[in-house]
Amino acid sequence: MFLKRYKRSMLIVAAVLLVCVLSAGAWVGAASLTSNVTALQDANIGFIFDGERKNLPPGYTVLNYQNHTYVPTRFVAESLGAKVDWDAPAKLIRITPGFSPADYQALKKEKEELEALVKEKDEKIAALEAEIKKIGGGESANQPTAPGNYQKLPLSRTLPGMHVMITGIIEDTIFKHNRVYIELENRELDTPLQLLQLESRATVDGKVYTSKDAMQHFAGDQKWYHDIRKEERESGYILMPKFPEGSKEMLLELTILYNDADQKTIKVEFAIRLD
Description:
The protein is of the alpha+beta class. The protein has four helices and 16 strands. The chain has two domains: 2-99, no CATH class; 139-273, Immunoglobulin-like (Sandwich), CATH 2.60.40. The protein has helices at 2-32, 73-79, 101-136, 211-214; strands at 40-41, 47-49, 52-54, 63-65, 68-70, 83-87, 92-96, 155-159, 162-172, 177-186, 193-195, 201-204, 207-210, 232-241, 249-258, 265-273. The radius of gyration is 34 Å and the shape is elongated.
């Protein structure tokens, strides 16, 4: 991303150098011929760098000589982020390209975005490791975390070859139903997977609710009608009837289909705190 801006800045610096070196050459040539020239100072010349106007600092000026404008090398180069040195013995102006403030801010923003992404991935890895540890301890994949151990979202479960996560529950106050948001990942199974949303059911504070009841009046998420193949991941929602105000606990049961000739299914449960 920033390399494009860097190349653009280098082109601008190169163009400025050409103007400045030509002007320096004209003055050196004039001095070597010991001739005097007449140039006009132009105090009305302005400078804009990356959309920002800058005024000449004290001690700098712009000259107009034979219909050419000569600008201060140091002021222009340093405004573009370059470093300027004067080699008196060799009579050379040495300019080292650098980064402008805009480049610095772009790099800083890109760094912050990458750090946020790494943090998100680390948190997800930690959640997966915790789930793997639970399964490794002998817990059945199709049982809730523990009897009566209801936990707040997000919750995830890792099963052989797949990963299931419940990311959130949103109440639709207009249509009077709930949307339970789910992520299903087929990590390494050659058999395609499907979430059977019509088979989803939730036991909320002892009362049973089903997606089939909610989908009598509303269409479900079309994503779940498609196969999730190996190394694919799908995110979507299932519909549930509206839960009573103040509901505290929900045991959510999902049914996942191995969509091959055998058409086997597996049930996955999540014990969710709603308060």
